[in-house]
Automatic annotation (TrEMBL):
Positions of the Aldehyde dehydrogenase domain: 17-471
Keyword Oxidoreductase: yes
Gene3D superfamilies registered for this protein in UniProt: Aldehyde Dehydrogenase, Chain A, domain 1, Aldehyde Dehydrogenase, Chain A, domain 2
InterPro entries xrefs: Ald_DH/histidinol_DH, Ald_DH_C, Ald_DH_CS_GLU, Ald_DH_N, Aldehyde_DH_dom, Aldehyde_DH_Superfamily, Succ_semiAld_DH
Active site residues per record: E251
CDD domains, per database record: ALDH_F5_SSADH_GabD
Lineage of source species: Bacteria, Pseudomonadati, Bacteroidota, Sphingobacteriia, Sphingobacteriales
Keyword flag Oxidoreductase: yes
Name of the molecule in the record: NADP-dependent succinate-semialdehyde dehydrogenase
Family: Belongs to the aldehyde dehydrogenase family.
Alphabetically ordered keywords of this record: Oxidoreductase
Length: 476
């Protein structure tokens, strides 16, 4: 039975549109096409921007209660179509179906959160020092928003941006990744069903990521750009956006450390490691990349982690009991191979895995005694590889964890309460998981420090990213 939300069209001004030029979307599990979408141009993008700009005045002046009701209705529709949304996600990204279902729920949690939080964009009354004026602030929508999202979380990375933008009163031009655009189109269909007015949300599909990205970043009609992706691309967009001094939010690359201290509960640490490493085959920005284990518990942790990794089931995401799917494309697979081969060449031992299987699949792998000058220590692998390093003291572990230009997420396990506070304070990361391998939550701020980005998504801070503060001074 055909999935009613798998629509092979882009979405513009309340209508689904076609194009003579299209591109195919490949299922990374089967390497077969699941459909094609319009391959739109920079000229098309300019039209989409103008449409969003035209819709901004009426949407930004729509009562916030009405905006929030529509987003809440969209939340309900996503719940109703949870199975279809998850199936689309697995088809285009390859992630296991149970993970896709979890992502649909996680993505929808932003719809629910901001449908309520949007009502709380409070201004304030400010005491006048001279006493001869009334001073106030109000918050208003920043303007037309460009949202550029990645392939690894094809729905959640959209709702984290679109939900707060909509309740704030912004209109949106959304450019999803060309590898996983069908989730975005499915969301547009549900938004249409929820009664979102024409032009408020527009989804442009294209293989020309550079051209579309530059247009969105440099257009004078776009007042904010929100991007999730690589640090390299984020740096380029930031440079381009400077030409029009627009607001910018960047959620970029990571190189997350995972520290296991002597006081840790090793079984809990292994459970956290599996959760934080192998979700979406290790292809997440907050995925654990470097495992630092204190000497006294190194052998125990390595042994138990290896045993747990050996049990992971690899396969097509639509088939249960798959726990680990394919890499997204050949480039992703090649990078994993390169990192493993480099680590082995520099003395690492393969505890389990270490080989490509077939197609875009790679064995879940544990490498021990990894050299600190290995590529896997310096670069984000984005694959199912656990690279284990040994450290002696707490100070050394913290120094190794912070020895990176990135600072998105960090994790550590310890049963020593005082140590937990000390380490959490010193880790250079925007988010820290303490005795936890999964940390994302719609009510908490998501974002990094250093070269991992600017701004926060989710929570009350995520709403602020789409609002401008206006100061009002009433004379005596």
């Amino acid at each position: 039975m055909k999935n009613s939300l798998l629509i092979e069209k882009a979405y513009h001004n309340g209508s689904f549109v076609e194009s003579d030029k299209t591109f195919e979307v490949i299922n990374p599990s089967t390497l077969k096409s699941i459909g094609s979408l319009p391959d739109l141009t920079v000229k098309d993008c300019q039209k989409y921007i103008k449409t969003a700009h035209k819709a901004f005045k009426s949407w930004s002046t729509t009562p916030v209660g009405e905006r929030c009701k529509i987003v809440r209705k969209l939340f309900n529709l996503i719940n109703e179509h949870r199975v279809e949304m998850a199936e689309i996600m697995t088809l285009e990204s390859g992630k296991p179906i149970n993970e896709s279902q979890t992502e649909v729920d996680y993505a929808n949690s932003f719809m629910e959160w901001f449908a309520e939080e949007g009502k709380r964009a409070y201004g304030e009354t400010i005491p006048s020092l001279a006493g001869n004026a009334h001073l106030q602030t109000i918050k208003q929508a920043v303007g037309v928003v460009a949202a550029i999202t990645p392939w690894n979380f094809p729905l959640a990375m959209i709702t984290r941006k679109v939900a707060p933008a909509l309740v704030a009163g912004c209109t949106v031009v959304l450019k999803p990744a060309s590898q996983t655009p069908f989730s975005a189109i499915a969301l547009a269909k549900l938004a249409d069903m929820a009664g979102l007015p024409k032009g408020v949300l527009n989804v442009i599909t294209s293989k020309d990521s550079k051209g579309i990205g530059k247009e969105l970043a440099t257009s004078e009609l776009i007042r904010k750009i929100s991007f999730t992706g690589s640090t390299e691309v984020g740096r380029t967009l930031m440079e381009q956006a400077a030409s029009t001094i627009k607001r910018i939010s960047l959620e970029l690359g990571g190189n997350a450390p995972f520290l296991v201290f002597n006081d840790a509960d090793i079984d809990k640490a292994v459970t956290g490691a599996i959760a934080g490493k192998f979700r979406n085959t290790g292809q997440t920005c907050v995925s654990i990349n470097r495992f630092y284990v204190q000497e006294a518990v190194y052998d125990e942790f390595c042994s138990k982690l290896t045993a747990a990794v050996k049990k992971l089931q690899v396969g097509d995401g639509l088939k249960k009991p798959t726990q680990v799917g394919p890499l997204i494309n050949q480039a992703g697979l090649d990078k994993v191979k390169e990192h493993v081969e480099d680590a082995i060449a520099k003395g690492a031992k393969v505890e389990t895995g270490g080989k490509a299987i077939t197609g875009l699949f790679y064995e879940p792998t544990v490498l021990s005694n990894v050299s600190p000058d290995s590529l896997v220590a310096e670069e984000e692998t984005f694959g199912p590889i656990c690279a284990l390093f040994k450290f002696k003291t707490e100070e050394e572990g913290i120094a190794l964890a912070n020895d990176t230009p990135f600072g998105l997420a960090a994790y550590f396990f310890s049963e020593n309460v005082r140590q937990c506070f000390r380490v959490a304070d010193q880790l250079e990361a925007g988010m820290v998981g303490i005795n936890a391998g999964l940390i994302s939550n719609a009510s908490a701020p998501f974002g990094g420090v250093k070269q991992s980005g600017l701004g926060r998504e989710g929570s009350k801070y995520g709403l602020e990213e789409y609002l401008e503060i206006k100061y009002l001074c009433f004379g005596d």
